[in-house]
Specification:
By secondary structure, the chain is α/β, with parallel strands linked by helices. It has two domains: about 210 residues, Isopropylmalate Dehydrogenase, CATH 3.40.718; about 140 residues, Isopropylmalate Dehydrogenase (3-Layer(aba) Sandwich), CATH 3.40.718. It is about 40% helix and about 20% strand. The chain is globular and about 50 Å long. It starts with a strand and ends with a helix. It binds 3-isopropylmalic acid and magnesium ion (MG). The site of magnesium ion (MG) has 2 residues, from helix 9.
């Protein structure tokens, strides 16, 4: 059986880190006897320049035919002024890609690598013993997509609409509870139920879904309090379940606490292919952006993308051993002291993208 992987390198450092990751994926596939077929397509500013649209129809079609998508990053100053704004890489490629592919569940693990704990923005005593939070963010609903949306004809007002249906909340809640089951069995659902009607529905539905997961401890927290608790005592969290925009904000905050923003992977998943199959179609990308300031210099850190590939093996290909092999190789590379410039301590020597990739490859085999 062969798996088809759509490769969307995108902009900025995207091509460098994605091609490094494809090398790691090929080596991993070889070691575990997995047949991978890669096919590349354009996305983001690169696609806009070549075709006039940041998400060409062929790219979407390729993704639909694939088992999983590996994405680098999109956007950069070159395309910030593109008109209309709906053709900018972020709004014109990322959001419709998520929506069209039905990728409603965004998993953003924020894990502290012990060897990098001095890079955290928190005091060491707050993160001692490690930090391992999983943000489960709803990705295709809420204020990002609700209608009406837009500017009034006279330009004097604007509207965005936050909408959630029971069904949307229920399916993301299940993903959150299932994830908690694989971890420390604590789920904190974050909302703004003291103000928002959608949040009151959110809380109601999450509480109902919890009935099916008596082994998971559910708590509810208001989003402003959660933002505060994350910097006050982050170790209280295991899984954070939240809606689209709160998840956007809290996942950046959680990621920064680990000091490893440039190291964190993410997975965006749809529904399982069939009820008896555990794999789901998914899109995998680093949490960091396209870093146009360092693009093309060969110094970008490929680790977040390589770890995203590990998630791809786990969730979309059902190859947990291959995923672990990659994660272990990365951990060993860090323990051995290899650092790209973004994670090197002042005065510490740094290596480039290729050398970092080679170091991972050496530990895979
Ligand atoms: C993210 C990004 C995107 C989002 C932007 C680029 C549209 O911030 O993936 O977190 O808001 O979802
Ligand atoms: Mg974001």
């Amino acid at each position: 059986m062969s798996f088809h992987i759509a490769v969307l390198a995108g902009d900025g450092i995207g091509p460098e880190i994605v091609h490094a990751t494809v090398e790691v994926m090929r080596a991993t596939a070889g070691r575990f006897g997995i047949d991978l077929r890669f096919q590349e397509a354009l996305i983001g500013g690169a696609a806009y320049d070549a075709t006039g649209h940041p998400l060409p129809a062929e790219t979407l079609a390729l993704c639909r035919q694939s088992d999983a998508v590996l994405l680098g990053a999109v956007g950069g100053p070159k395309w910030d002024q593109v008109q209309p704004p709906s053709l900018r890489p972020e709004a014109g490629a990322l959001l419709p890609l998520r929506k069209e592919l039905g990728l409603f569940a965004n998993l953003r693990p924020a894990r502290l690598f012990p060897t990098l704990s001095s890079a955290s923005s928190l005091r060491l005593d707050l993160i001692e013993g490690g930090l391992d939070i999983l943000v489960v963010r709803e990705l295709t609903g809420g204020i990002y997509f609700g209608q009406p949306k837009g500017r009034s004809p006279d330009g004097q007002s604007a509207v965005d609409t936050c909408v959630y249906t029971r069904a949307e909340i229920e399916r993301i809640a299940r993903v959150g509870f299932e994830a908690a089951r694989q971890r420390n069995r604590r789920l904190c659902s974050v909302d703004k139920a003291n103000v928002l009607e959608t949040s009151r529905l959110w809380r109601e539905v999450v509480t109902e879904v919890a009935q099916s997961y008596p082994d998971v401890e559910l708590s509810h927290m208001l989003v402003d309090n959660c933002a505060m608790q994350l910097v006050r005592n982050p170790r209280q969290f295991d899984v954070i379940l939240t809606e689209n925009m709160f998840g956007d904000i809290l996942s950046d905050e959680a990621a920064m606490l680990t000091g490893s923003l440039g190291m964190l992977p993410s997975a965006s998943l749809g529904t399982a292919r069939s009820t008896n199959e555990r794999t789901t179609f998914g899109l995998y990308e680093p949490v960091h952006g396209s870093a146009p300031d360092i693009a093309g210099q060969g110094i970008a850190n490929p680790i977040a993308t390589i770890l995203s590939a590990a998630l791809l093996f786990r969730y979309s290909l059902g190859q947990a051993q291959a995923a672990e092999a990659i994660e272990t190789a990365v951990a060993r590379v860090l323990e051995a002291g290899y650092r790209t410039a973004d994670i090197a301590a002042p005065g510490e020597p740094a290596i480039g993208t290729q050398d970092m990739t080679r170091a991972v490859l050496e530990r895979l085999l």
